[in-house]
């Protein structure tokens, strides 16, 4: 029989409720000798949306990739739920990272699989046995959880549609449902709405904000649309040349700061 192996929680005391779930300090990264992140510090809290703004090449994506382990920083600290990730190895690191999900501009769904099967795939990190190799063997309780996630993003009626037949906005919502099925507590979204039309972009950002506020997720989204950040983010981080130039409430982001953030970087991407 297929078993759902829930990850064993790390034996760490739960941080107080007002502690950040993610604390990044002094993140430093270079490519080919060129510094692209220069001492980046920020925190993410449950129940809140942080938007990363900045010109092309300012280091927004690299910041998220370092947190996800897709890039390795030269220096800095990344603490997830109070645990320094660089101190973890093997299964412990995998389990810690399982609480962070990523949503990309280029939506990574398997087009020939149904929306439901794609959402179930969010649980692959905790499944063993035949279900880990074929959706045919996904257990009933996983399908129910995936169905609830699809309902949460407003797509229960498309559960059995092949992902390749969904619109861009629907596909991105399926990707968000997959993150819910992963049971992530941090959702990193790298330009999640850049490929969507304005209405779908608005809907996806509204959904991310709703999930942050109602499901207590910590959401960080790289955006190229300051207006979307103004409507949906609780906090904004503005990067210039790999340094944080602005970190604060959306209300403090005035026209002159926005214009500075979007002055082309010294070395553009
Ligand atoms: N794998 C890589 N190899 C070499 N340089 C890279 C790599 N990834 C990113 N860079 C460089 O690092 C800098 C920051 O890139 P990054 O993608 O983080 O910027 P960004 O702010 O997300 O830009 P954009 O808005 O264009 O996506 C850019 O100059 C980019 O060319």
UniProtKB/TrEMBL annotation:
KW Transit peptide (keyword) present: no
SMART domains cross-referenced by the UniProt entry: AAA
Keyword presence, ATP-binding: yes
MF terms in GO: ATP binding
Any one Pfam family match given in the protein's UniProt record, by short name: ABC_tran
Residue ranges occupied by any ABC transporter domain in the UniProt entry: 22-266
Keywords recorded for this protein, A-Z: ATP-binding, Cell membrane, Membrane, Nucleotide-binding, Translocase, Transport
Domain of life assignment: Bacteria
Family annotation (InterPro entries): AAA+_ATPase (IPR003593), ABC_transporter-like_ATP-bd (IPR003439), ABC_transporter-like_CS (IPR017871), MetN_ABC_transporter-like (IPR050086), P-loop_NTPase (IPR027417)
Organism of provenance: Paeniglutamicibacter kerguelensis
Record's protein name: Phosphonate transport system ATP-binding protein
């Amino acid at each position: 029989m297929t078993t759902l192996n829930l990850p064993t929680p790390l034996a760490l005391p739960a941080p107080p409720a007002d502690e950040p779930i993610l604390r990044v300090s002094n993140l430093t990264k270079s490519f080919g000798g060129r510094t692209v992140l220069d001492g980046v510090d920020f925190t993410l809290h449950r129940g809140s949306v942080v938007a990363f703004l900045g010109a092309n090449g300012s280091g927004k994506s690299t910041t998220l990739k370092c947190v996800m382990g897709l890039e390795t920083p030269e220096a800095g600290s990344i603490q997830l739920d109070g645990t320094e990730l660089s101190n973890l190895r093997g299964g412990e690191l995998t389990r810690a990272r399982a609480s962070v999900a990523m949503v990309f501009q280029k939506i990574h769904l398997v087009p020939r699989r149904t929306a439901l099967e794609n959402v179930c795939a969010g649980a692959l990190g905790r499944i063993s046995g035949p279900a880990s190799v074929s959706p045919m063997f996904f257990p009933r309780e996983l399908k129910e959880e995936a169905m609830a996630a699809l309902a949460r993003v407003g797509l229960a009626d498309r559960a059995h549609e092949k992902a390749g037949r969904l619109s861009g906005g629907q596909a991105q919502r399926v990707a968000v449902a997959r993150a819910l099925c992963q049971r992530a507590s941090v959702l990193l979204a790298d330009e999640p709405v850049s490929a969507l039309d304005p209405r779908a972009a608005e809907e996806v950002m509204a959904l991310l904000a709703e999930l942050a506020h109602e499901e207590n997720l910590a959401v960080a989204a790289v955006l190229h649309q300051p207006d979307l950040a103004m409507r949906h983010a609780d906090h904004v981080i503005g990067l210039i040349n790999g340094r944080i130039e602005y970190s604060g409430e959306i209300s403090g982001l005035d026209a002159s700061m926005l214009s500075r953030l979007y002055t082309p970087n010294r070395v553009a991407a």
